[in-house]
Amino acid sequence: MNLILICLIFFFFFILSCMYTFVTFLRIILINCQGPGLGKVFPNLLFYLFFFKKKKILKNLIF
User: Under DSSP, is residue 35 helix (H, G, I), strand (E, B) or coil?
Assistant: First the structure.
């Protein structure tokens, strides 16, 4: 019973992080399509890469 609960929590967080990544990616695309706004896109890309690296570190800690 406890193991199922832990699995559900991890699954929920996994879906949440996937959704967040997807939304961030969409935001990057939308801002990119608005026109010459490289100043806006670049910090977002940096944030996206930083978040992705952080998630990889988190995965390494879990497994």
Answer: coil
Any long-range contacts for 52-60 (C-beta under 8 Å, 24+ apart)? 52/21, 55/17, 55/21
pTM over 0.85? The answer is no
CA distance linking residue 58 with residue 60, whole number of Å: 5
Q: What is the pLDDT along the chain (63 residues), one digit of tens a residue?
A: 688 888 888 888 888 787 888 877 777 766 665 555 555 555 666 666 666 666 665 566 554
Q: What whole-number distance in Å separates Cα of residue 42 and Cα of residue 28?
A: 9
Degrees to nearest 5, angle at CA 15 with 9 and 21? 135
